[in-house]
Amino acid sequence: MTVRWGALRLKGMELHFTPDQEALIRQGIDAGRFQGKEDAVQEAMSLWEERERRRLEIVTAVEQAEASLARGEGRRITTHEEMTQLTGDIKRRGMARLSAEQNLRR
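Structure (tokenized):
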């Protein structure tokens, strides 16, 4: 593996970094956070994978919500008044749940 600042070659793939990215990697290495560029790239890929997993979970939840609305389930919130009513309902249910949990602990 050939490693030089400005690029990183990994299994036939060459990565190029911006000057700011290079400086950030250097700082991480100098601080002992990473042993080399490869470690920094691995960390970045791990974070990206996690972000993509979360993004896909959100996309799936949105698709499920849209399908639910298309079936006539749920409720659309389009006005400030409807949002205020919904938040009030959520607060009341939350307070009731909290009270019930506290009563169970006694």
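The chain has a mean pLDDT of 88. Residues 23 and 68 are 48 Å apart (CA to CA).
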